[in-house]
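Onboarding guide, step 5: your first structure request.
Type a short instruction followed by the sequence, for example:

Predict the 3D structure of this protein.
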Amino acid sequence: MKKKYTIGVYRNAGSGWHGGQIYFDNLITLLRDGDGEPVNVVIIEKERPPAAEEDESRVSSAVYLSDYLSEERSKNRDRRKEAKQRRKKWWQRILPQTAPSPSAAKPVSAAFEAIVRDYQLDFVFPLPPTACGNGVNGAGWIPDLQHCYLPELFDSTEIKSRDEMFGKLSEAGIVVFSSETCLSEFLGLYPAPAAKLRVWSFCSNPGNDLISTSPLKAVEKYCLPEQFFLVANQFWKHKDHAVVVEALSRLKREGLSVPVVFTGALRDYRGSGHVDDFLQAIQRAGLNDSVHLLGFLDRDEQLHLMRSALAVIQPSRFEGWSTVVEDCKALGQRLILTDLPVHCEQAPPDSIYFPTGDAAALSEEIRTLFLDHAAEWLKGREAREFLAKKELSEVRAASRRRFLEIVEASQATDHEPTQKSRS
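The system replies with structure tokens like these:
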């Protein structure tokens, strides 16, 4: 029997990055609930949430980085105070410095070292850049390289920060990429790092309870028509909601009104000018009756709407490993999605690709599904979900094995030479 690993999962996705939060939730569930090698999971949260927001299913095994950082900062203040007192003594000028310099303290790295020690962690994922190369065993994570391919969406400070972060991550023993596509892009853009490179792609887990429940309650709650398409992305500019509106405008001019539901908060941390343009385009095209803006939804409600849709439209201009695509694969739902290399790598069945940014091509695909295949598709939902559930069990088992292979590789004392190495 293999060793029972204790793995720390650092939930470092910001509150605005919902795909990242789902990524970590899926990983935690995969490690805890999967068959095979036993695993203990310790969840490392950035900050302790208010008591009213605590999730009882996680609190029992959660540790809060902010608690350890407070302790490290307190130690740092004591070091500064001690150093200041030493400087007041006249003999300080002729005696060597013996106490550690305050500037040598690295609170985040020290906090992770303390967490690893206190909880006896064998592996931490993902390691923050500040903890790489400082004795904490684990793997760094590079989800995507969007700033290299769409630099116009970032300011120079953030581009520099990301480049420095990825450079620091290369000092980790292992760096994990979310897709083969991202790994190939990385090797083409960055000097070969000293770390071992691995690919681990998450898969969604909607849960048996959700699948066994009728999705119609969510449809009725929002007064949606029986037949509709769904766009379930955050309103970030690279998600390209605008191309969907343009496609609907084309259909509207031809006399065809197609209902489309958009979920997600109407904001972008980089600025919401494109959100205003999106809303104005809906008004100008006279699409108010066919476009349904529902805002940010509970995840189960969003998944129920995915189940009920004629198709999910994924118009994104860039992805690392799309949560929307994985959700649809887990639910047996089809997509109309852009022909990004990573979308092709994810290979969702029964799906239709269109050229990125091509509203004319998108409108043709929407028209065909809406006019020719709608009733047939809706009738087959339960059968598709049954098959998807059966396949998902095997996919999740394989995904768990691959992740534990990365954990095992991290236990080796001798690192491999830099190569395109994959689990």
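Each response can be followed by summary notes, for example: The chain has 17 helices and 13 strands.
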